[in-house]
Specification:
It is built from nine helices and four strands; from the N terminus they run αβααβααβαααβα. By secondary structure, the protein is mostly helical. It is globular. The chain has a two-stranded parallel sheet with strand order 1-2. Strands 3-4 form a two-stranded parallel sheet.
Length: 174
Amino acid sequence: MVGTSGSGKSSLARRISRQLGIPHIELDAIHHRAGWTPLPAEQFRAEVSERIGPESWVADGAYHSKLGSLVWDRADTVVWFDLPKAQVMFQIIRRSVSRAITREELWNGNRENWRNLFALRPEQSVIMWAWTTYDRNRTRYLAAQNDPAFAHLTFIRVRSHRAADRFLADLTPH
């Protein structure tokens, strides 16, 4: 499951996991240690590799710079949650503000913090991260669909929440 931060990919991945009765692997939860400290690349790769060993799973996230094609090499399908940029931005702002207000724990004790919501550096603000990576992600996933290295994959591009609901309605275990 891929898509820009804030698109809803983790929520959709959890729904797929429940519907198919297979494990859900949230790459953010593995990567972000306490204090938002990133797991070193080699350890991250090893932990992800171990978790995607079983036959069936749904993973959400990309981390191409640290994982390369590890996840995609072991996958049979890539679902791309490709919502319009304006919708992604609305969702991520709403989600981030809500998380900051409620102090919801994300992973390993990490929480959204007000200061980072207004930061202009993408490394600090998930909102700026979504804004700056949206176009790059679209280019990457469009190209990947035609890349011979990923010919073994079925690509499913989901462009709305309604389309996601239709996709789930048609999804059945193998």
